[in-house]
Every structure is written in C-alpha cells, then in structure tokens.
Automatic annotation (TrEMBL):
Record-linked PANTHER family: SMALL CONDUCTANCE CALCIUM-ACTIVATED POTASSIUM CHANNEL
Cellular component terms (Gene Ontology): membrane
Name this protein carries in UniProt: Calmodulin-binding domain-containing protein
UniProt subcellular location: Membrane
Membrane topology, from the record: Multi-pass membrane protein
Species the sequence originates in: Acanthoscelides obtectus
Molecular function via GO: calmodulin binding; small conductance calcium-activated potassium channel activity
Any Pfam family matching the protein: CaMBD
Keywords of the record: Ion channel, Ion transport, Membrane, Transmembrane, Transmembrane helix, Transport
Amino acid sequence: MILTIYIYIYIYSKRFLFFLQGAGCTALLVAVVSRKLELTRAEKHLKNAAANVLRETWLIYKHTRLVKRVNPGRVRTHQRKFLLAIYALRKVKMDQRKLMDNANTITDMAKVSFIFHLLLIQK
C-alpha cells in the first residue's frame, strides 16, 4: 500500500518537473529568437525610408498608367514626395556610415590609449 502511493507521487512529480523544464526551454527559445529578429533603430529608419521610396514609386505608376485620365497635379505631388523619399534614404544611409566611422574611430582611440597605458606601465 505504501509502495503504490510512493510510486504514484513520484510519477506525478516527474511529470510536473518535465512540464516545468519544457516551459522553461520554450520561453528561452522564444526570447533568443525574438532578440535575433528584432531590428536596431538604424535598421528601422533605413527600412522605413526604403518603404517610402517604394510607396511613392507605386503611386506615380498608379496615377500615370492605371488611370484613364492623368491628373498632372497628383503626379507632380507624388514625384516631389518620391524625390524627398530618395533624399531621406540617402541621408539615413550617410548617417549610418558616419556612425560606423565614429564607432571605428572610438575603438581605435581605445586601442591606442590602452597601448600607451601599457608602455607607461612598463617604464
């Protein structure tokens, strides 16, 4: 009688531990995958600027080719927005390049200061 109760509790506690382990592994996997899929702030800006260029390209095509009568005012408006979107995309790309150059400069300065510090310690 006592042996059967012990086995019964043991089996259910084992199931509970397996359940907790599975839930923990799943939560960890979801956290790692979501962190990898998350875009940085700069990537979000770049993606948004590229989407604006594509949107305005489509709207120009739509208002020139897919209508019976072309409305020149709308076409000019979307052409202006298209050029502004291209300029914004170029600016975002240039800002990213500058940021990478600054990051490289900072790491180079850190390396130089570390080497200089080592030279001072040796003397």
